[in-house]
């Protein structure tokens, strides 16, 4: 069976994703995908994390990655709040909504442009939540990023606060890991 996608035909078996926890070996591909999705390149990622940050976070909490045909096509970071406390934007989020005991940063979430709309986000959230069951995940989203707001709402995030940073408005969203089951 093949699936038609614009001008090319993609065999259905090529849309199978391998979901796993990231390792340090994945960091170069994570950085490349992150770079493609920065605000300065027309994306919505507000922070560009260095390799060392990803390498440290991988040791503390899961970063869920997706591969298709051997290529990294998406990732969803889980990180302790302390890992971003040195950055002004996450500090503003923390002031707006500190979260409960055991809360963690959910995000950034990044999907390769040609993989969007294919169910990959659900797979990443489901995996993250299964690894962190019973804990509160907290994210922030630019208010003008309607697609991300809709996706987060679809997967159980609720808006809990708002803040502005350097003239940009953001929303803080939160969920508890058990909520993903109702969205499969």
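^ structure tokens above, recovered residues below v
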């Amino acid at each position: 069976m093949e699936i038609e996608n614009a001008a090319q035909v993609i065999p259905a078996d090529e849309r199978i994703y391998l979901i796993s926890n990231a390792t340090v070996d994945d960091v170069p591909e994570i950085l490349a995908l992150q770079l493609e999705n920065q605000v300065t390149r027309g994306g919505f990622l507000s922070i560009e994390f260095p390799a060392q940050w990803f390498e440290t976070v991988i040791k503390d909490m899961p970063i869920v990655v997706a591969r298709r045909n051997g290529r990294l096509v998406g990732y969803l970071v889980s990180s302790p709040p302390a890992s971003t406390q040195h950055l002004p934007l996450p500090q503003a989020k923390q002031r707006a909504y500190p979260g409960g005991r055991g809360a963690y940063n959910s995000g950034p979430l990044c999907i390769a442009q040609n993989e969007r709309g294919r169910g990959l986000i659900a797979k990443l959230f489901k995996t993250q939540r299964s690894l962190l069951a019973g804990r509160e995940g907290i994210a922030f989203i630019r208010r003008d990023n309607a697609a991300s707001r809709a996706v987060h709402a679809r997967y159980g995030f609720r808006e809990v606060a708002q803040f502005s940073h350097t003239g940009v408005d953001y929303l803080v969203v939160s969920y508890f890991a058990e909520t993903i089951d109702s969205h499969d």
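The first strand starts at residue 2 and ends at 5.
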